[in-house]
Amino acid sequence: MKERKKIVQRTAGLVAAALVLTVSLSGCGRGKERPTVKIATENVFDKYDLALAQIKDVELIKSINCTYSQLSEEKLKFKIAGFKVAHVYAEEGQDVKAGDLIAELDVSSKEKELFDLESSIRESELEIQQQNEMIDFYESRINSPSVSLAAKEDYILSKEKCEENIITANKKIDYCNKQIEKDQYIIENSCIYAGIDGTVLSIKEGIEDWTSSTDSTAVTIVDTSVCAFVADDKDAVQYLETGDAAEVELSNQKTYSVTVTQIDEETGKIVLELDEPDFSLTMGTSGIVKLLLDKHEQVLALPRLTVYNTDEYYYVFTLSDSGVRELQKVEVGLIGNDYVEILSGVEPNSSVILR
Q1: For residue 234, is it within any domain?
Q2: Could you tell me the residue range of the domain that residue 329 belongs to?
Q3: Three-state secondary structure of 292-326
Q4: Is the pLDDT of residue 14 over 60?
């Protein structure tokens, strides 16, 4: 043990001597002093915005876009296609009454055809009458004992010819009647009439030169006497029931109290009528309905921007005392629009990186 102690002391002395020699040599040479390196510490905390874990209410709110619209609307279409528009009797913005003639097609060719067909039927009916009179005459001659057998044969042939003429005339009448039925349908449906009292909202552009189509709307009429905010959102209907109260917020921050009066689960249409009428509202005014889907009151929460997630877990970033960014797993509860409920992983008033 004594020998070992001596060896250690001797080694320490050699090391000390070497250090002294190194220091002495550093002062020799070219006679210049060795530059001193200064190490500056940087405050990395200034690089990040931090957020505190605080006790807050966490709310999950769904926003639905809606538009102030008339509840009753009528889109007028022609029932027949392929005809030019002859006249339009209304203008956009014009008030109309149910039953007013709005527009009609040029079906003059069908009207002429109808006249000709009816004339043809009258001619065929007259032909049948004449042929029956001839048949009566021929039968009287055939049954007369004073007529020779050869003459009777001629009368029989003439009678048969009359019967054939009657069959042809009846076929012509049947054909004309079928065509008349088609023409009458076209003529009867060549006009469109207002079905409701209202205002002409729009007329098809270029309708004067338009050829009718059964798929295109010619004129739209709206009933402006009853209006409401209307939304189309199939996802939102599951959170609403008829009679629910809500608020609509406009872009100018003005809010209106409304009540859900209609819900169509198939189309997603939601009608929200004003609790108090406001005649200053104009058609097409847009608003937002905010629905409170869930709320956890006075829970530990962090801003939603601070919370990240993978398929397996949620996490935040924290700063250590030495300024090192560290990943910290957290367990979350309700994920709201602005804040996330924190169940574990972060203590109250502790800081996380916001950005």
Answers
A1: yes
A2: 50-60+295-353
A3: EEEEEEEEEEEEHHHCEECCCCEEEEEECCCCCEE
A4: no
